[in-house]
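Collaborator request log, item 7. Partner lab (contact: R.S.) asked for a structural prediction of Centromere protein U to inform their binding assays.
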Amino acid sequence: DSPGSVQVWCPKGMKRFSKDITELDVVLAGFEKIVADYRQRVDSSTCRKAIDGFCSGFKDQITDLITEVQKLKNVKRKNAKVITDIKKKRQRLLQISEELMGTEQQLKQLQREYAELQEREASLRHATQFLIDLKELQQDCLDYREENPKEKVVYGVSSLPALLVESRRILSAERHFKNINARLQEALDVQREKISKKH
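Returned to partner:
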C-alpha cells in the first residue's frame, strides 16, 4: 500500500494528519492486515489468544514509537515557528534601530540649524538696535543743524554725526536689514514648528 492509502493512527489527545504518516504507520497497517488474515485461518482458540496477545504487544510498541516520533515532529514545528518569529522580530528591531538613528541625525541637524538661527536672530536684533541708535543720532544731528544753520560742518573722524547726516545710505541699509529680519524670522518659525512636531 502507498502512504496515501494508509489510515492515520492517532494517539489519544494528539492530532495527526496525512502529512504526518511515517514508515511506522505503514508497518502497523501491514502487520494488522497480515495478522487478521492469519487469524482467520486458525481454528484453535488457544492459538488465536496467543496471536491476539502477540499482536497487542507488537502494536503497543509500534504505536509508542509513532507517538514519540509525532511528539518530536511537533516540537520541531514549534521550534521552527519560534525561530521564524525571532528572525522577524530581530529584523524589525534592526529596522527600528536604523529609523531611530536616522531620526536622531535629523534631530541633531535641526538643533544645529535652530541654534544657528537663534544666533542670527540675536545678531540681527543687535544690528537693528544699532540702526535705531544711528537713526536717532541722525535725527539729533538734523535738529542741531536746524538750530545752528550758520555753523560750518566739518567732516572728520570726530564728526561722525555730521557725516551721518549727509549719508542717506543708512536708510536703505535699514530697509535691507528689515527684509533680512523678516526672512530669518519666517525661517525660524518654520524650524521651531518642525522641532515641536518631532517631540
